[in-house]
Amino acid sequence: MLDIIVIALMVTGLFFFFGTTIGLHRFPDFYTRMHAAGKGDTLSSILLLSGLALYNLHHLSPDTVQVSLKIMFICVVIFITSPTATHAIMDAGYESKVKYWTRRKDSSAPQSSIEPGKGEDT
Amino acid sequence: MKRLTLLLTLILGAYLIWSVEDLPEWGDPTSPASTYLSPHYIENIVEETSVPNLVTAILADYRGYDTMFETVVVFCAGLTVLTILRRTERKNKKVSTPRPQREGSDIILQNTARLLIPPMQLFALYVIAHGHHSPGGGFQGGVILGASFILLALSYDLKKTLKRFKESSMLFYSGLGVLIYAGIGVVCLLLGKNFLAYAAWSNFLGITELEAHSHGMLGVEIGVAITVMAIMFSLYADLASGGDLDEGL
Asked: What's the rounded Cα separation, in Å, for the pair B22 and B28?
């Protein structure tokens, strides 16, 4: 029973990693690529690590429970840091006016109410 | 001149490749290094130093001199970067680069940093203090401590971080770490043993000589960690602001 859950978690994790890789390779611009990398990477890492934590519980003892708790702690840290890092990279790209992909021909720069990259001391 | 250098390099390289033949096989148990020294460390390290982690024991005890001067190298590297980048004339000619509009005001980054920095620093102290028993030690723990300050500077801005960790205290702590390391060695000399022979501390602290080895290693690891922490952040602050410490990430 435990094996089935572990296999399901690992396969789902690998599936999402595969999606992340394809997204990173095939999406048209910086922002969509970061979107694929940030979301898929976080979710698949957590699925894979949860699978490992569960697999570790085959021999139930205080030691293995401790190791599993440590793995789950890594999950928590990844859950906090990975989206934040994606956000920071994305924000830096927006500030430095990275062009985004669109089907329309006239809009080559990001359009929003605040003009990106306009520093106070320029 | 270039051709002469190339010729010399080629000759030296060919000679080195030729001499590789005479080196012992990789991991050969009968090679000179693994015949006398390594077995001695592996068999006697716990009896001689009471520290189960061989790497820490060799690094901080058997090769204490080496590690002390590694710390001095880190210290000198930090001072060199500071000296090269700090040029007051440059400030007048400095072209101010456009700063990001929302610099130092990203609430997501700031709250994540506030959440992560305390556990990071606690973990760094654990790595320093637990270097005897598990992977870790002064250099690793010091780098994690320095990284926590860099994270603060990245998520807020450099000025705010420099208010908490001033440049004068960076210099003070980078020197203090080396001084702690060398001071522990000098006290050994004053107590009548060799430099960095931690056994000398046993009478002074009222513990056995074995415990003195362990405690001495902890002391020098703390010294290494303080220097590495201060120099890590000093390097970041100088390089990010071009040496002026006025703006930057």
From this structure: 13
